[in-house]
Amino acid sequence: MKYSRLTKEQFEELYQEFINFLSTQAIDKAEWDKIKIEKPEVAEQELDVFSDLVWEGVLGRAEYLEHFSKNHIFLFQCFDTYVQSIVLKSLVPETDFLTKEGLQWLSDNMFTETIEIKTGKKVFTEERNSSIFQLIQQGAFLSDGQLFKQIISIIES
Fold first, then answer.
1. How far is the first Cα of the chain from the last one, in angstroms, to the nearest whole number?
2. Where are the alpha helices (H) located in 14-145, listed in sequence order?
3. Band of pLDDT at residue 68, cut at 50, 70 and 90
C-alpha cells in the first residue's frame, strides 16, 4: 500500500464508490461475498487498492492543510512542487489553540508581541501526494484555506 487503508467509517461513507470500483473489475455482490469467504487475502488487496485510489484522488486535489497544537498553528498551501507554510506560535505558554478560548485569544492578540508568525517554503523532496499524506499522518487536515488566505493577505499588505 502506498498510503493507509480507509477506516470502516470511511468505507461506509464511500459504499457506492466501492461498489462502482468492484463493478469495474466485474465483481458483483455475490462474487464479493464469495471472495471475502474463500480468498480473504484477495479481499484485503481490493480494500487496499481502493483505499489508495481514494487517497490519490483526495491528495491530488488537496490545496490547503491546517494543523493545530496547543501553542502552534501550522497552515499550508500546497502547490505542484512545493508547500508554502505559515506558522503561528503563542509566546504565552498557557495559551491553548485546541480550545475555543485559545482561538479567541489568538484573534484578539494576532498582531501583538505575544504571537510569533513565520512563513516558509519547502520543495517536495518526495512525490507531492506522499508529502501531503505525511502531513496528514502528523495531524494536519484538509481545509478550505480561509485562515491561510486571511493571514497571508495581512502579512503581504
1. 44
2. 15-23, 29-38, 40-61, 100-109, 128-137
3. very high
